[in-house]
Task: inverse folding
C-alpha cells in the first residue's frame, strides 16, 4: 500500500530531539498519551518510536493533516500510534468522552506550539479538557514560546509575536502567568519549567492538590 504524502515541518524536525530528551526523563516506561494539535505527525511518530511502551493518540482540528500523520506512522512502522482523530479543544465534551478514543484518561497529554496560534479561549479549552482526562499522576506537557516577568524576551520572539498578531489579532505569544492562572481555574498547576533551544519552554502541568479545609 502506498504511503500518503508526508507533510514536513523543519521546526518539528529541529525540536523533536530536545523535547524527547525531556519526555524520557519525565515519563514512566509505559502509558497512554494524547497529543493535541499533532500537525504533520512528526512528533507523534518520533516520540512513539522512542517510547515503545506507550500508546500515542494523535489529534488535530484539521483533518487535512491526517494523511500525513498516518503516513509518518506507516513509514516508521510505529504500531503504537493510533489513527488520528479530529479534536477542537473548544468543543465540549472532547471525543475521548465517547467511544472513539477507548481510554477515557491519559497518563500524558502533550500539546506543542498551539497556544500562540490559536484564540486565547483555546488555552482554557486545553486546560479544562486536560484536567478532565488526565489519569491520576498524569501530566500535561506544553511546549512553545512564552513571555515571562523578569526574563528578557528574545528579539526573535518579539518579532514572531508581532507577526502572529498581524496575521490574526487573537493570536500571540502568551504570558506564562496568564496561562498558569487559566490552568489554576481548571485545577492544574505548573510543576516544572524547562528552558529549551530557540527560546522556547517545555512546561509540565499536574493536578493541583485540593485546598486544605479552613
Result:
Amino acid at each position: 500500500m502506498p504511503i500518503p504524502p508526508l507533510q514536513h515541518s523543519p521546526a518539528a524536525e529541529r525540536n523533536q530531539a530536545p523535547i524527547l530528551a525531556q519526555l524520557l526523563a519525565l515519563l514512566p516506561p509505559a502509558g497512554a498519551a494524547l497529543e493535541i494539535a499533532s500537525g504533520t505527525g512528526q512528533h507523534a511518530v518520533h516520540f512513539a518510536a522512542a517510547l515503545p511502551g506507550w500508546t500515542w493518540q494523535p489529534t488535530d482540528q484539521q483533518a487535512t493533516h491526517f494523511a500525513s500523520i498516518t503516513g509518518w506512522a506507516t513509514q516508521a512502522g510505529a504500531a503504537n500510534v493510533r489513527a488520528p482523530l479530529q479534536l477542537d479543544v473548544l468543543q465540549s465534551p472532547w471525543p475521548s468522552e465517547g467511544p472513539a478514543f477507548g481510554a477515557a484518561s491519559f497518563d500524558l497529554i502533550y500539546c506543542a506550539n498551539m497556544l500562540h496560534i490559536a484564540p486565547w479561549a483555546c488555552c482554557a479549552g486545553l486546560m479544562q479538557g486536560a484536567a478532565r482526562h488526565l489519569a491520576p499522576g498524569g501530566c500535561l506537557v506544553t511546549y512553545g514560546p512564552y513571555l515571562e516577568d523578569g526574563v528578557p524576551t528574545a528579539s526573535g520572539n518579539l518579532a514572531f509575536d508581532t507577526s502572529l498578531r498581524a496575521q490574526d489579532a487573537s493570536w500571540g505569544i502568551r504570558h506564562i502567568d496568564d496561562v498558569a492562572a487559566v490552568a489554576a481555574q481548571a485545577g492544574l498547576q505548573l510543576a516544572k519549567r524547562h528552558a529549551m533551544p530557540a527560546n522556547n519552554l517545555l512546561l509540565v502541568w499536574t493536578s493541583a492538590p485540593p485546598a486544605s479545609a479552613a
